[in-house]
Amino acid sequence: SSDSWEIEWEWWTLSCSNVTNVYCQGDAATYRISFVLSLFFLFQIPFSCCGTMVHRGFWGIKILLFLVGIVGSLFIPNSVFNDHGYAWAARFVSAFYLIFQVILLIGFAYDWNDQWVARADRNIGTIAETGWLGAVLLCSAVIYAFAIAGMVFMYQDYRSCALGKSISTWSFLAAILMTLLSVFRERFGDEPGALLPAAVVS
After folding, report:
1. Which H or E run includes 145?
2. pTM to 2 decimals?
3. CA 91 to centroid of chain Cα atoms
């Protein structure tokens, strides 16, 4: 039965009630993996600032350290990861992580767009120009299709929640606004408009 897979170590069930024991252990497992991943990447930051060797290499050692961290985290009491410990801190730190992630995503999208447009510019008047620009439009359309599907899913999944519908609506309006600003940004500055970055961010 599924009960045979439950972990019954005392420190694993600490702060868990008998009613919610399985769910509590599941949350604790998620927090442990998140905690080890946070330490794993924080450990690499100072070395990566000095060069790319540690970031791109030493995968055998890094994977071993990660697995050791996962096993070691199993011996940490659940009280360390509850709403008064790691989970509480992660709520605030995750906001900065998401902002940083969006900045990286925007940079990636503009690099992608610039490379493909540059290839089209090198082949002006040929079928290659049409192909590269068509690829930009096709990728943008596919990404927007996934974004719209995601919006529809959120409206259906959170239709009984006023806050959820409000957030979905603001996200949809923000996507439209960012698309317009990105496509027509040459009217506000010297940079030409770009559809692909707006699609990626949406």
Report:
1. helix 127-157
2. 0.61
3. 15
